[in-house]
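Q: Protein A?
A:
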Amino acid sequence: AIDVFEEEPAYENIFFGKDNVIVTPHLGASTLEAQENVSVQVAEQVSNFLINAVVVNALNMPSISIEDAPKLKHYLKLAGQMGSFVGQIVDFEVVSVQIEFEGQVAKLNTHPLTAVVLEGLMKHLLESVNMVNAPYIARERGIEIIESSNEHNSHYHSSIRLIIKGAESEASVVGTIFGGNLPRLVEVNGIRIEAELNNNMLFVTNDDKPGFIGILGKTLGDAGVNIGTLQLGRKNFGGKAMSLISVDNQITKNTLDILNAIPLVNKAIFLRFD
């Protein structure tokens, strides 16, 4: 039996017509019925991705099974937000990305979560980055990717810790899911803070001194920026503090320059989340 020839399609061959030889073209399985079945399968796979966030039979990324999809859905959003958050606040060249999964999330298929973290991190640095190519681009750029899982977590049902390191700098963020489906940041650079990430966010680090919130609010008000929510955190009284503020509109460069000129402000960054 022969199913491939040196030249395809083969119109003439010495084996043709012999009673003891079976020959087929190389695409012998490409029958009308097979094409119909393939079309149905592709449609089902696309439908599963769009409706259930299920990625089946992927060639160059971890597949997400139908069973895992509902469990991973909100973690995928959280992981993407965490990567995007860190990607927008770091101002150094990244040499390593460490991702720690703790609690119930550690029992799941975490490879898609790592891919989404890297996509969120790198899309602010490079164009044409997606969930599929982000891990490969990171490795091509010499970025070390470290993953760890621990099914025990003393603080939360589940959490993801992301640590980004440069040659001399480091940034970290911890996120979790509240109420079964609400992604939240719960720690940034070692400071406890609980915040939901909306489309437009202002991230401010500052010296913890009396009157700062009033100055910050007035500056935003004078610029016509309306505050939706404001979350605060600090390590200790009089030390370093931070604010994560959701705003109803984008903040201009001029307003950011005014904010960064406030004596108590260390850094003010406008963040966007799709």
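Q: Protein B?
A:
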Amino acid sequence: VLAGIINTLAGNGSVVTLSLLLFLGLDANAANGTNRIGAVTQSGTALLTFGNAGKLQILAKRGLHFLIITLIAALIGAKIATDIDKNTLEMVIGGLMVFMLGLILIKPKRWLRATNIEKNINTPLNYFIFFGIGLYAGFIQMGMGVMFLAALVLRANFSLIDANIIKLLIVFAFIIPVIIIFVVAGQVNWELGITLAIGQSFGAWLAAKFALQHPKANIWVHRL
């Protein structure tokens, strides 16, 4: 539930879920694959909640190019992840946890802006950035939400709430084909994956309701 709240409002909830899966005895590869099950149901639940509030259509259209580029890159990243040595993957997970914290703490006021719909966001640099994030997201997922938010807020000038909705849409689009890659590789534990799915979906619903109703949601998203 906590991971669902964190992932929907901000990102990096996989720090919680990956740690739990490793603690429960899965190796790094199986934990990396199983972790995606909760992500797909959580993203779908949050999108339905935002969609019912009329926040989805215009943002989906504006972020369409990013979605396509990220999807292609995520499939490549997932294939790499299924082939990597589990000890190497554990080292990567540990180092990235530290890097994500640093990204958020640099110039925090830049994150508290309103959406600028006049800005041209379809630039070669933005496409390159989203391809890189997609590659990473397919590879490990942990921290991808923070990366998406950084690109959408700091580069594409969306508010944190609007950036969150686009992030969820992109993740939902690529996570299902990515899961298939991990299933084929035999790196998904369904018992733990379904447990994650139930908890994270409930957390996502709570978080989406909060984001829509709280007048200072942007501030609380950044703090989280």
